[in-house]
Amino acid sequence: MKKWECTVCGYIHEGVKPPDECPVCSADASMFVEITTDNTTDEPLSTPVPSADKLPFSAFVYSKMSELILKHHLHPISVHTPNGVVPMAILFLIIATFLHLPLFETIAFYSLAYVVIIMPAVLLTGYEVWQKRYRGALTSIFKIKIGAAVVTVTALLILVLWRIVQPEILAAPSVGRWIYLGTAFVLLGAVGVAGNIGGKLVFGNRK
Fold first, then answer.
1. In the prediction, which pLDDT does 195 show?
2. pTM above 0.85, yes or no
3. Which residues lie across from 14 on neighbouring strands?
């Protein structure tokens, strides 16, 4: 039985021909190569880092940083923080709203502000992994993941800035309060979608 490897995500398919679409990253059949004894490798799909004498110093430093991001899996590490903190913050917003416990709202605000602070690292490491490990592929799954990231950042900024401008937004019933909570649930959904896709990309090519 022939084996075919997706050159985007590394998924291995067994069959006479490659699948019409990769079940992990949605790449089409043209992105599959047949695995033979000549091209089998255990190395991850990534771009080698040029030596210092072939690049300007700043470009070399950036390349080394990119190499470290891939080697030490810094994107999954960094993304675990928002994936854990955001659901907690949303839960605290609900508790503050319906049980009238303002301390929980304060904790939620500072938690979301913390997520905003670390988001640049999450986005940078995610971009590097997408470009180097997944060849910058723009298949449907990556478009959805990028869209989820955009929604996440937008909702985060709305929630944090709105709370700064109007600290008592959850204190009393109002249309604004429900819009605020609705934005919080949009944020939770976007984080969930991005996390689900990330897990599929990491573990979906394992049998």
1. 92
2. no
3. 3
